[in-house]
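Dissemination and training. As part of the outreach component of the grant, students in the summer workshop were shown how a complex can be specified as a set of sequence lines and then modelled as a single object. The example used during the hands-on session is reproduced here so that future cohorts can follow it. Participants entered these lines:
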Amino acid sequence: MEKLITIVVPAYNEANNLLPLYDQIGHVLSTSIYKWEIIFVNDGSSDHTLQILKEIATKYSNCKYISFSKNFGKDNALKAGIDHAKGDAVITMDADLQHPPSLILELIKKWEEGNEIVYAFRKGANPHSNFFSRMYSSIFWKILKFLSGMKLEEGISDYRILDKIVVDEIKKMDEYELFLRGMIKWVGFNQLGIEYVPDERFTGESTYSRKALLNLAIHGITSFSVKPLYMAIYLGFTFSFMSVIYIPYVLYSLYMHSDVPGWSSTIMTIVFLGGIQLIMIGVIGIYVGKLFMQTKNRPNYIIQAQNLMTQK
Ligand code: UDP
Ligand code: MG
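and obtained this result:
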C-alpha cells in the first residue's frame, strides 16, 4: 500500500513563500513512491497568508490548512498540524524555505531505514548571522543544555520526520508552553540527526527576536527539569556553611573589641545575598506560574477556520 507523508508547515506572515514552498515540495515528491499532503497552519498572520492558503487549497486537493484565531506561537502551530496529521510519517518544516525541500527525500530514506525520528541540525555556526548573534546563540544552547539536562545539539532545527508511532505520543501531550524540540528528544525511540545547511529566508523577515530566544531558553529549562530549584538549595547550603565559619569570627572580634565599623562588608553581604534571594524567588515563581497556567487547562490553540473536514 502507498504510504502517506504529511508535511506540517507553520506560517506567520509568510504569504509570498507559501506557493514557492508548495511547488518545490511537489517537485521533490512528485517522482517519489509516496502519497503526500501538506497542512499549513496559519498562526494568526496579519498579511494575506490565509487568502493564499485558500487559493492553493482550491487548486490542489492535498493542500489543507488550519487557521488560528490569533498568534499562538510556532510550537503550538506545529502541534496543531501534528494533531491533525494522518500520515504514516509527519515532516515538519519552516515556511520560509530556509529548510531546503531537497532534504525531504533524505529524511524519508533514513526513516524507512528504521529511525522513528530523523531531525536536521545545522553544523557549525549559522552562515547568515553575524558574530554577536552567533555568540549569543552558542551561549544560549550551552546554558539550555546544562540546565535542562537534555542532550540537545546546538543548531537543532524544527525540520524533521516523525514516525506515526511518535506522532501518536506527541498528540497525547497537552502541556502548557510546549517545547517541542525537547519533547521530541524526550520520547525516545531511534533518533538520528543529519546535518544540513540552512538557506536564506525566501522573502519576509524572521520573527524570532533575542527576547523570544531568551524566553525560549527559560521555558526550555523550566519545562524540562527542576535543576534550578536544586541550585537554590545548594546555594542555601553553601551560604549557611560560610556563615557557620563567619559567626565565630564575629564573636571573637567582639570579645577582642576589634569590631570596627564594618559597613562596606555588611552592605556587600546584604546586596549579594539579596540578589541571590531575588533570583531564586524568581525561579520558584516561574515554576509556580507554570503550575497555575497548567491547572487552568486552556487549549494550546484555537482554530478559527480550516478545510480538514471538507476533503479527504
Ligand atoms: N512562525 C509561526 N509563528 C510565530 C513565529 C514564526 O508559525 O509566531 C513560523 C514562521 O512562519 C516560519 C517558522 O515559524 O515558518 C520559523 O520562523 P522564522 O523564520 O521567523 O524563525 P527563524 O528561521 O529565524 O528561526
Ligand atoms: Mg526562518
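The first strand starts at residue 4 and ends at 11. Students were then asked to discuss how this feature might be tested experimentally.
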